[in-house]
Amino acid sequence: MRITQAFTFEAAHRLPNVPETHRCHRMHGHSYRVELQLDGAVDPATGFVVDFFDVESAFAPLLGRLDHHCLNEVEGLENPTAEIIAGWIWDRTKPALPQLSAVRVFETPQSWAEYDGG
Ligand SMILES: Nc1nc2c(c(=O)[nH]1)N=C([C@H](O)[C@H](O)COP(=O)(O)OP(=O)(O)OP(=O)(O)O)CN2
Ligand SMILES: [Zn+2]
């Protein structure tokens, strides 16, 4: 069984490694969407793979570090591409949520990165 929980946050960033002519070299903002996907067996007692409340609790500290922050100032996100943010979230969420199977980070509804640990 697969479950997914979505979160949103607002943040500013710039991409320091693209050419100065690239518009993402300049500071700008996104309304990010993060999806945490978990795979596992349904516990017959609870009917849950994992309680969504537990997913929320595991992600809350990271959300606090991202929401309304400049991502470039967050340790590990000096080059805050969607790909790097997805890996950063994975590394910090997987220990608390072993059933985590994918992290998706959307910069826009049309553009996202997905990391599954591979
Ligand atoms: N592979 C990636 N490519 C790009 C990333 C990324 O994280 N991974 N990020 C960016 C910039 O963040 C850029 O801000 C995204 O551009 P944006 O204007 O927000 O997106 P769109 O061009 O799709 O939106 P418009 O509606 O056309 O403004 C660039 N590339
Ligand atoms: Zn951007």
TrEMBL record:
Binding-site positions, Zn(2+): H13, H28, H30
Cofactor(s) listed in the protein's UniProt record: Zn(2+)
Keyword annotations: Lyase, Metal-binding, Queuosine biosynthesis, Zinc
Pathway in which the depicted protein is active: Purine metabolism; 7-cyano-7-deazaguanine biosynthesis
Cofactor binding, note field: Binds 1 zinc ion per subunit.
GO MF terms held by the record: 6-carboxytetrahydropterin synthase activity; metal ion binding
EC number: 4.-.-.-
Keyword Zinc attributed: yes
Catalytic activity: 7,8-dihydroneopterin 3'-triphosphate + H2O = 6-carboxy-5,6,7,8-tetrahydropterin + triphosphate + acetaldehyde + 2 H(+)
Keyword Zinc: yes
A Pfam family of this chain: PTPS
Gene3D superfamilies, alphabetized: 6-pyruvoyl tetrahydropterin synthase/QueD (3.30.479.10)
Enzyme class: lyase
A biological process from GO: tRNA queuosine(34) biosynthetic process
Active-site residues (renumbered): C24 (proton acceptor), H68 (charge relay system), E107 (charge relay system)
NCBIfam families named among the record's database cross-references: queuosine_QueD
Family designation: Belongs to the PTPS family. QueD subfamily.
Functional summary from the UniProt entry: Catalyzes the conversion of 7,8-dihydroneopterin triphosphate (H2NTP) to 6-carboxy-5,6,7,8-tetrahydropterin (CPH4) and acetaldehyde.
Protein name: 6-carboxy-5,6,7,8-tetrahydropterin synthase
